[in-house]
Amino acid sequence: MCDTPSRTCGDHSHTCSRTSGHKPAILNLLEEARVWSSNASAISNDVTAILMDTGNLVLSSSDSVDDLNKALWQSFNEPTDTFLPGMTVYMNVRAGETRVFTSWTSDNDPSLGRYSMGVDPRGSPQIVIWDGLNRHWRSGHWNGLIFTGVPTMRAIYLYGFKLFNEGNGSLYFTYTSSNSSDPLRFRIGWDGNEAQLWWDDGKKEWRIMQLQPANECEVYNKCGNFGKCNVMDSTICSCMKGFVPKNVDQWDSGNWSGGCVRKTQLQCGTNGEEDGFVKIEGVKLPDYADLMVAQDIGDCGEKCSKNCSCHAYTFAIGISCMIWRGDLVDIQHFEEGGSDLYVRLASSDLSK
């Protein structure tokens, strides 16, 4: 790597070198400009660079090459576009901090692109792909075994995700492949697609195992607020029971971004009218959930019904009671799997 003199990379106009502060760096020979350098503090010349079998490039003092905890710098702590087994994805729930992977600008330009991928720590953690500051895709909430918005995880994942709580609001994800002879990796593409790839040793190439988003309904909030997306329907977007399109003309023309609005405003005890809940089965749960302590689904529902700002709830195994106080965003219907969502409606809309 960068300790090898004059080793070229990319379009051959770049070379690996060291800065005056002895940080590894990549220089642009044509423009005589620094393209990249590590964030390691200035270090001595007595440094060894080791490329581990895991793919982790580690810079260590010569007397501590076997101790990662004493490493001066390691690439696993500076993610680019690829998530490898053994890497950790940190987040701090209290500080709202998370480590992200960033796409390339194009298929052959490794400069920082428009898409990033990381863990959103709010509520129950989930993986999110951002297009700039906007959400592009999300995995659904982590329940201790899978991300609930990726029901195929049970069948196709050959590795084990684990979530560790370090206290003080700090968490991190990692994963381990179940078959070290059949390596697996994740990559956030320049086009915003997250690819899960496995190494075909026979063909000596990386092959795509799955892409996210895999279809139109997996694009974030495809049908707008209070809309529901089903890729199997001829018209993929529909309003949930008790809701109608916000802009009928746009909706009928195939522009569903405006979403849906309630037919009848919630009563919440006004004039003696009580609201109720309708069960929506087999869906990707909406974004921006709040967590509450509850014994079971009944207890969760009772707490929601007593709170006029609670618009929906569910009790998810491995997560507990989840409630939604604002608009219901990014709902997708699954043919198999998914969760049940209880949506608050005015009593007059329950029987329609």
UniProtKB/TrEMBL annotation:
Recorded catalytic activity of this chain's protein: L-threonyl-[protein] + ATP = O-phospho-L-threonyl-[protein] + ADP + H(+); L-seryl-[protein] + ATP = O-phospho-L-seryl-[protein] + ADP + H(+)
EC number(s) per entry: 2.7.11.1
EGF-like domain segment(s): 213-249
Keywords assigned by UniProt, alphabetized: Disulfide bond, EGF-like domain, Glycoprotein, Signal
GO terms assigned for molecular function: protein serine/threonine kinase activity
UniProt domain Bulb-type lectin: residue ranges: 1-72
Chain ranges of the Apple domain: 268-346
Catalytic class of the enzyme: transferase
Biological processes, Gene Ontology terms: recognition of pollen
PANTHER family, per the entry: BULB-TYPE LECTIN DOMAIN-CONTAINING PROTEIN, G-TYPE LECTIN S-RECEPTOR-LIKE SERINE_THREONINE-PROTEIN KINASE RKS1
Official protein name in the record: non-specific serine/threonine protein kinase
Organism listed in the record: Camellia sinensis var. sinensis (China tea)
